[in-house]
Fold this sequence. Notes:
alpha/beta; nine-stranded mixed β-sheet
Amino acid sequence: xxxxxPKQKPIAGVKQVIVVASGKGGVGKSTTxxxxxxxxLANDPAKSVxxxxxxxxxxxxxxxxxxxxxxELSDNNLMxxxxxxxxxxMSMGFLVEEAAPIVWRGLMVMSAIEKLLxxxxxxxxDYLVVDMPPGTGDVQLSISQxxxxxxxxxxxxxxxxxxxxxxxxxxxxxxxNVPVLGLVQNMSVFQCPNCQHQTHIFGSEGARKxxxxxxxxxxxxxxxxxxxxxxxxxxxxxxxxSPDSAEAEAYRKVASAVVQKLQELQEVTDWAERK
Length: 275
């Protein structure tokens, strides 16, 4: 841990925390987080995977995971996550009315984040996937500095404007000593459902070039496809509703790449400790 940073405290019962982030909104970060969590579970059903939505002002997980209602309390007075598709989930969207605006100052937001981290009965979990809000603000810094984060997944479209913000996000995590596992190039290509012609609407290979410049890998390419949008809107994520589709396979490949990077980092850590 870098000098001057707060002492990190693990989340009880959680082995590894994976944050899914983006420098800006509208690049498919939440959809990626959901399908990453489901992809991790699909690839290895023996593992336990949770999903935490810390986008306080714009929670998406309740809609994407088709969940609603208030969490119950355990005997230890901890909130019990709502579960669907085998994944326990927690979101501010479970604690406020769906249409109610959250008009809070920074301290109130940080207090809410602390409750979502510490006052939830998460464990035991092998992986907790955290859907971060867009940007590089207080929430990102607080989570990165107060809990041990195993790695960050940066989501971006190939568009130049999105890539500028993705670079800022990656550099922020590096400054707080969070390993950047790699980039997901979302909406990489559009294939016409009628003629099958492919069009790079947001540009071509932009995330790959950014990954090269940052010295990280592209964890996977996810196409711009109507099925992903429709299944997300219905709360039936593509990995669950169309597991044999090419789109679901793209997310499962991202999940495999994430696990591989986590294993490589653990091997480096184990080697350093032996030295």
